Amino acid sequence: MRKYDRITPEGTRDLLFEECAAQKGILNQLRETFEARMYHEVITPGFEFYDVFSSSSMYFPQESMYKLIDHKGRLLAMRADSTIPIARLTATKLKGHALPLRLYYAQRIYRQQPELRGRSSETMQMGIELIGLSTFESDIEVLTTGIEALAACCGEDFRLELGHIGIFKLLMEDLDATSEQKENIHSLISSKNYAGLADLLEAFPASQTVEILKELPKLFGGKEALEKARILFNGYDSKLIEMLSYLERIYQGLIELNISGIENLQDKVMIDFGLVHQAEYYSSLIFRGYISSAGEHVLSGGRYDELFKDFGENLPATGFGINVDQLAAKRLKEMDYNAKAEKAVSDSGTPEKNIRIALTKGRLEKNFMDLFDTIGYDCVNLKEKGRKLLLPIPNKDIDVVLAKAADVITYVEHGVCDVGIVGKDTILESGGTFYEVLDLGFGKCRFALAVPKGSDFYSGYSTKRIATKYPKVASTYFESKGMDVEVIKIEGSVELAPLLSLADGIVDIVETGTTLRENGLEVIEEIRGVSARLIVNIASMKMKKTEIDRLIADIQQKVRG
Ligand code: PRP
């Protein structure tokens, strides 16, 4: 029997020497920041009864939690979050305690991550909870502490982004849509999929609600985002205007803060009306923090006035959690440990440029070069690339890297590339967290179900077998039809599978239809159209906003024209 006694499970790792020192340094700095503001430490158990995390609302997908069973057969869950156990603790052990309560924590959280995506399942998190206040001053206090925490660990290299989940919730209440449509709208807004959102909203009768929803994910940036929102929201329900006014007050309050060591808070504090994360959990103000070396947010928080109701209390609260591991990784980079590796990379080639684009090798390359040529971005290095994979655009601050489609997503998700050019087929199959901002209009083809010509796919009782390079797309399609099929993953030339009688049909992309025709297959159902998309790393969109906005605007001129 194979013994797993020499390795750690995927998503976990040992920390040695310098790594421990870097983590300890961050923990100490955050501890100092929180204690200076009179927050007191609490520690909750490493595992709780599962019910704590699944009370009246299901805040986490149950598949993301690690579960155990106690000696009485009861279900337990490893701590998936700190705020919920702290709400439990406050509603029980601290019941009747003088308010407000200022609590902080430094503990690990455990969440299952998708396989082989390089994400940690165990994260060291520190954060604060301010319980019992629902004032403007309490929100400012928590946000200020968040800024101080990021500044203590990262100097000026951070952005803090504000949003208001109440705005999205109100608009959703006003839209006559099914819960499935609402879920789709939520996901299209949070991924800044402007084209997909506009298509979906086309189906609704014209109204100001639809107009605002369409624009919501585009409303991000500095003060100008608030000004645009004011015009767009004009004449709408007074509750919406109140929420906007509150956001404006908070923004103004923050940029006027005087925090030592921070020059221009105006450049660091941003607004994003498309920030709709964890809509279930938060009730009004929400925010996220970013640093340049992490491809994802490092701080996440907001006001959660409803959460205590799950534990029989009615207490307003605001708080945030910080990913200590990400800050420690940045600290490590800055220390000398990685210097050698980085030096070797920079010595090996030309200096690194500011924006890195991951381009899907093959079919999309030519279209991309045509597009870049038309907008005046010099593609000479791409045209004469030989076997090189990293190719600078000489007249712009841009490097292009050539990668396989699925890897484009991986590089963008992790933030080692800021932007990606990839087909919607790969996005649907791989999933991932990034912004999908433009439909580039090239690389057009369609997903289809194809079978040997003349065969009756739906006849008989036997479970059909489908060969495909896209098992997730194929399974989702047949699930939506309520049909049981057996899906077999094939890496390429999938048309062979029915020819060799391995499968009854295939789900694949079809462009001209030639491959199907020449192999005796025919399309019996079209699943959906696909085309090339421009995707952007979430942190890059905030940290390099000016440069990425310029690139998108240049491309958009051509794509629209
Ligand atoms: C894709 C797809 C089909 C073919 C369709 O394969 O999987 O096989 O193109 O194009 P057509 O309709 O214009 O004939 P690809 O060329 O990417 O190669 P692969 O099957 O080896 O992955």
From TrEMBL:
Keyword annotations = Amino-acid biosynthesis, ATP-binding, Cytoplasm, Glycosyltransferase, Histidine biosynthesis, Nucleotide-binding, Transferase
Q: Which reaction is recorded as catalysed by this protein?
A: 1-(5-phospho-beta-D-ribosyl)-ATP + diphosphate = 5-phospho-alpha-D-ribose 1-diphosphate + ATP
Q: Which GO terms describe its biological process?
A: L-histidine biosynthetic process
Q: Cite the GO molecular-function annotations of the record.
A: ATP binding; ATP phosphoribosyltransferase activity; catalytic activity, acting on a protein
Q: Under which pathway is this protein filed?
A: Amino-acid biosynthesis; L-histidine biosynthesis; L-histidine from 5-phospho-alpha-D-ribose 1-diphosphate: step 1/9
From which domain of life does this come? Bacteria
* Cellular component terms (Gene Ontology): cytoplasm
In this protein, which residues make up the domain named Aminoacyl-transfer RNA synthetases class-II family profile?
26-351
This entry's Enzyme Commission designation comes to: 2.4.2.17
- Identify the InterPro entries for this entry: aa-tRNA-synth_II, aa-tRNA-synth_II/BPL/LPL, ATP_PRibTrfase_cat, ATP_PRibTrfase_HisG, ATP_PRibTrfase_HisG_short, HisRS-like_core, HisZ
Q: How does it assemble?
A: Heteromultimer composed of HisG and HisZ subunits.
Q: Which family does it belong to?
A: Belongs to the class-II aminoacyl-tRNA synthetase family. HisZ subfamily. Belongs to the ATP phosphoribosyltransferase family. Short subfamily.
Q: What is its biological role?
A: Required for the first step of histidine biosynthesis. May allow the feedback regulation of ATP phosphoribosyltransferase activity by histidine. Catalyzes the condensation of ATP and 5-phosphoribose 1-diphosphate to form N'-(5'-phosphoribosyl)-ATP (PR-ATP). Has a crucial role in the pathway because the rate of histidine biosynthesis seems to be controlled primarily by regulation of HisG enzymatic activity.
**HAMAP family the UniProt entry points to:** HisG_Short (MF_01018), HisZ (MF_00125)
* NCBIfam families in UniProt: hisG (TIGR00070), hisZ_biosyn_reg (TIGR00443)
Domain remark in the UniProt entry: Lacks the C-terminal regulatory region which is replaced by HisZ.
Additional record remark: This function is generally fulfilled by the C-terminal part of HisG, which is missing in some bacteria such as this one.
UniProt protein name? Multifunctional fusion protein
Origin organism lineage: Bacteria, Bacillati, Bacillota, Clostridia, Peptostreptococcales
Gene that encodes the chain: hisZ
